[in-house]
Amino acid sequence: MCGIFGYLGKKDPLPICLSGLKQLEYRGYDSSGIAGLSGGKIHSCKEVGKIVGLEKKLSLAPMRLDLAIGHTRWATHGKPTNSNAHPHFDMDTSIALVHNGIIENYDILRDLLKKEGVQFTSETDTEVIAQLIAKCYKGNLLAAVQQALPQLRGSFALALIHKDHPDEIIATARECPLCIGFDDQNTETIVSSDPNAFLSSTPNVIFLRNNEIAQIKRNQTDFFHLDRRILTKKSERIDSEFKVLSKEGFEHYMLKEIYEQPATVQKALLGRLDDENASILLDLQIPEEKLHRLRNIWILGCGTSAHAGWLGTLLFEDLVRLPSTMEIASEARYRNPILTNDTLVVAISQSGETADTIAAMREAKRRGSSILGLCNVKNSALSREADSTLYLNAGPEISVCSTKAFTSQITVITLFALYLARLKGMSESQMRYYSSELKKVPAQIQQVIEQASLLQTIAKKYAEYDDFFFMGRRYMLPTAMEAALKLKEISYVNANGCPAGELKHGPIALINERFPVVAFCSNIQTHEKIASNLMEVKARGAPILAFAPEGMESIAAIADDVFWLPPAIDPLAPFASTIAGQLFAYYIAKERGCDIDQPRNLAKSVTVE
Ligand code: F6R
User: Fold this and answer.
1) Which among 203, 175, 177 is positioned nearest to 192, based on CA atoms?
2) Atom of ligand 1 nearest to the CA of 401
3) Three-state secondary structure string covering 541-595
4) Where are any strands of DSSP class E within 466-533?
């Protein structure tokens, strides 16, 4: 998390940094700040909260700067206060520094520095870096960085400036994304956590690898390793996918992105269903022969992407008859997994930057597995490091709460399962059957969207409750977990996803008339079982909202409210149910007056452990 942006060039750095930080706000919005140089002095401005606050403060007291670095923060060490906001400084305000990552030994270093008389003004791990570099500084900023950084444990992307180096920004990274962008004339240089924040003006990009340092000067950037080696790095030219972001008349990005899903699912399918040959066309860089002899699949993801992966395990089991497990990436990275040459690792991430997913993927790669990435963002770390990447093609997802990326993830994972199934002998007629069912999905999604006002009415009724169980079976279990996650993250409501059959093994003790149950009933194979589970909670007084396929009258007889969904085969039922869950969460959050697109404590891209 946290976004870094810096500018050295011929233009006024302030508006460029502010605009870059806005592009990076998805990485955190607890506070933001900018520092720059002019007249041999460091000047800075920081503000708690979103970047509009910083912008407003700067409009009242503008700074004239020759170069600048900026930061948007997702708090790790220390509350979101002004003193904990970046940039951070050394004691003499000679150095200003912005940081993304976590310094694990910051407390030891802080104690050592304090013993040497250094005074700290923040609770952050970042300030330790600024103070440490200042201690090492003897007139050469690059040398000070090379001396200080080997003492740090943990992860970092840094940009820093020094008052005596009016034409220099130092940027360096370990386990965190950072890249340098140049224009064609090499008159402007940008440092940023994400190339998409600058590609429209500076399309030539160099990604920093672990322990590499960029010494950015006017018209020239040199690269070094922390061990002082000089590096030669080549830039790549990346076409801008930059689009002016707009809610296009919707009240929130989340609603806009929910409404986009008939089109985004269609886009994920586009060119991938080959009806003539009853096959799936995927641009895979992993040899077919290797995929043919796979014995198991290990799926990695976090949050919503993990839920997509969980649905993937059911698809691989049902359609391919191939064992697979979904691993929460933050756990997977510290396991001792049994991965063989015949294991495929599928890493799923909207952003392609999630630290835990990347680390688990790297570990699997180190153990010899092939990696297939499912990712939305081009040029992300995941897409650069995976052996092959299937893109979601969902377009930028701006709302922190993931919606359209999820349905695109499950579209692509279904396509991949069908691809493998065909490779392993699925008949042409079966393949054609699934293909025709898949083609119905965009219309099913549209049908739910057209009933958004009904979901709003239902949501109004349920918005007064603070606790919920979301339950389902088989394909409806990850779907229910995902719907619960949506509700909790944007409404701050205690929404627990639970296997319907598991409630009676403990969680049912929580049930009372103030604890509604939201049941996802679209898994036809288990519909009688979920009806029994609903009777059990009804007997304990829980209000019941059911999302059920049209015609499932047994559920209507039990539930207090039913939202009818278009019927679909079990493996594809998650799509329509998910849209209903997203809209339900959206309208509850709206009813409760929450900050829907930027919920508290969250960030879109989770680049720390
Ligand atoms: C929930 C949400 C998160 C992300 C998770 C992984 O709405 O957005 O749970 O799904 O942080 O992010 P990616 O997919 O970018 O790896």
Assistant:
1) 177
2) 7
3) CCCEEEEEECCCHHHHCCCCEEEEECCCCHHHCHHHHHHHHHHHHHHHHHHCCCC
4) 467-472, 494-499, 517-520
Active-site residue 604, yes or no?
Answer: yes
Residue closest via CA to ligand 1's atom 10 equals 304
- pTM equals 0.90
pLDDT band at 199 (very low <50, low <70, confident <90, very high): confident
The pLDDT-based confidence of 461 (bands split at 50, 70, 90) is very high
- Structural tokens at position 162: 């020094």
List own/partner pairs for 391-396 with CB under 8 A and 24 or more apart: 392/264, 392/268, 392/350, 393/264, 393/267, 393/268, 393/270, 394/260, 394/264, 394/267, 394/268, 394/350, 395/243, 395/260, 395/264, 395/267, 396/241, 396/243, 396/245
Token pair of 122 as six digits = 């923040």
> Could you report the per-residue pLDDT of 227-258, keeping only the tens digit for each?
999 999 999 887 765 555 688 889 999 999 99
Q: Quick one: DSSP state of residue 318?
A: I
Q: Where do the domains of the chain lie, and which CATH numbers do they carry?
A: 3-237 (3.60.20.10), 248-439 (3.40.50.10490), 449-609 (3.40.50.10490)
Gap from CA of 285 to ligand 1 centroid (Å): 25
Question: If you take atom 6 of ligand 1, which residue's CA is the nearest one?
Answer: 302
Q: Calculate what percentage of the chain has a pLDDT beyond 90.
A: 89
User: Residue 200 — pLDDT band, cuts 50, 70, 90?
Assistant: confident
Give the distance (Å) from ligand 1 centre to CA of residue 279: 31
Catalytic residue flag (residue 2): yes
Nearest-angstrom CA–CA distance, 99 and 602: 18
Assess whether pLDDT exceeds 60 at residue 557.
yes
pLDDT at residue 483 in the model: 98
Q: Ligand 1 pocket: which residues have CB below 6 Å?
A: 302-305, 349-351, 354, 357, 401-402, 485, 489, 606
Q: What is the pLDDT of residues 98-125, one digit of tens each?
A: 999 999 999 999 999 999 999 999 999 9
CA of 401 to the centre of ligand 1 (A): 8
Distance, in Å, from the CA atom of 428 to the CA atom of 420, rounded to the nearest integer, reads 13
